[in-house]
Amino acid sequence: MGIETRLLMGNEAIALGALRAGVRVVTGYPGTPSTEILETVASHKDKDVYIEWSVNEKSALEVAAGAAYSGARAMVTMKQVGLNVASDPLMSLNYVGVKGGMVVVVADDPGPISSQTEQDTRHFGIFAKLMVFDPSTPEEAYLMIADAFDYSEKYGRPVLFRPTTRVCHGYASVNILPPLEKKEPEGFSKDGGRFVIFPRLTAQNHKIIERLLEELRDDFSRYDKNILTGAASGVKKGIATGGVSYAYVREALSEIDEPCKLLKVSTIPFPEKLALDFLEGLNEVLVIEELDPVIERELIALCGRRHISLTIKGKLTGHTPDAGENTVQGVREMLCGFFDIHMEVVPMSPGQNPPLLPARPPVLCAGCPHRGAFFAVKQAVNRFAGGRKAVFSGDIGCYTLGNAQPLDMVDTCLCMGAGITIAQGINRVEPDTLNFAFIGDSTFFHTGLPGLINAVYNEANIIICILDNATTAMTGNQPHPGMGVTVTGKTAPRLSIYDIVKAAGVSDIARVNPFDVPAATEAVKGMLDKTGVRVLLFEGPCIAVSRGGVPCEINSYKCTGCRVCVKNLGCPVMYMENGKAVIDSVLCTGCGECVSLCRFNAIEGGKAHV
Question: How far, in Å, are 13, 19, 23, 373, 543 from residue 5 at the CA level?
């Protein structure tokens, strides 16, 4: 029987590799580019594998740690900013250690394509004294995740696994190998307080960790690869790289006939013996990596300690970009500069030139309930706030797009859950300001609750707008505790945001339908002159999880061409044509948010009028 080959996304390859390695518990929180890993496990797992979308990354990591304490192989998935949330338990966990293999998959996002930051998880590995594995392709990620579990068990420490966006979302043909031998978890053993972190235990384990790091440098020198391309004798130039940049370098080198040494670094701690072999005989090295100069700094430090005289070029010298992701074309240009060669670029004929794509700024979807919520708040403030200054603090989610024109309703956005607490801080400095905080339902469960409790406890004077669209929309409609279903489709207790807010001590709560803009505006108006913590719970389903309604249409006989509907709401289905407003009936979901805008009653139909 032959080996099965599948075309897999990198995230799918990581998930199937973890299942092959015998993972028993998988937890995480959705975040692009990592989300499909856990979803793939959910669609392929057997009855022995437990899987959950946790309420946040900290909770996910702690659940997985408990499983690893009990001898099971556990995996946690998140994106790079999620690691910030999980960092508290992870720092301590490395000192305590684990019994079962534990891999924390942290997907970095060079670009960034869909993130707040371009942070490089390799730095966290160095800072926290953790092992890091950095795959360069989906095929390698499939095999490497099993190695990560093995190393975690061998050294009794959690391991970071750092795919980047192009590895996560790239596709490749992967040979599906037979499952590895599975070990039954031993169960939790008290082990004389081994898993209780105390200062004395920490001091002892810190020394153990430092010794392990030295051992790992040698171990990883055997694990990583040192490749010589071109003529072996007299080679004076070398390329050091890692992660997906290694794949770009190999492709670019195939077009450049220049002999060089090639060092691939896939791990942290840095494989020093391997690097010394690579540096032997060289007088110049170019380092190509994403995102930060991690390999570059390690090579500089190694040369300094060993008194090796050579030139190292990279981000620190301005020879490679210090931000953003690499590409094959960009790497080719770096190599041409390094080898001082000129490659002819054959221009395309006029018929071959691809058309320029139109600019497509991100926008709230047609039928998005958040548009109605933002517009209702904006109208209420403009009409009934008596000229008072209003500040709108946003959060991480689809509703961050409320900052775009013409809504212009997001003044701050920092990180998950920060909208509620940022609003409190602004209000302490400007007590006469109307402070609104916008937060989504999944984000509310993630890190919004502490901010809400802080506001009630410290008697803040803010209006919290919870935008409940019944899903985790931005990352692909994953379930959360307010939906009554788990990642596996199992029915679960449905937590009521209204009841939670009420239990937290908020007395001024209004449940609002964002699609009924006039009623929503009145609800916001009713909160403006009150004080303390007030909550507006906007409840309207995301178009991805609702059926939609009868599309709206413009009565051209009534339309005066005033453009109020087009200019004020910002719905992508509305535009002007021949002096009249037009609604694209194919894209319109019939939400009805626009109907009340027209004082000439020229907008007809819509869900609210069915």
Answer: 11, 16, 21, 48, 37
Strands 267-268 and 131-133: antiparallel
Could you give the CA distance from residue 154 to residue 1 in angstroms, rounded to a whole number? 33
pLDDT above 70 coverage of the chain, percent: 96
DSSP string, 289-323: -SSSSHHHHHHHHHHHHHT---EEESTTTTSS-SS
Q: What is the pLDDT of residue 205?
A: 87
For 353, the enclosing helix (H) or strand (E) is: none
- Among 361, 286, 285, 288, which Cα is nearest to 324's? 288
Is residue 609 very low, low, confident or very high in pLDDT (cuts 50, 70, 90)? very low
Where, residue-wise, is CATH 3.30.70.20 in the chain? 553-609
CATH label, 369-545, candidates 3.90.226.10, 3.40.50.970, 3.50.90.10, 2.60.40.420 = 3.40.50.970
Please tell me which residue, 222 or 548, carries the higher pLDDT value.
222
Contact 7, 33 (CB under 8 A): no
- What whole-number percentage of the chain has pLDDT above 90? 74
* Tokens of residue 421, six digits: 């607490």
Element (H, E) at 288: strand 284-288
CATH number for the segment(s) 4-219: 3.40.50.970
What pLDDT digit, counting tens, does each position of 146-196 carry? 999 999 999 999 999 999 999 999 999 999 999 998 888 988 888 777 788
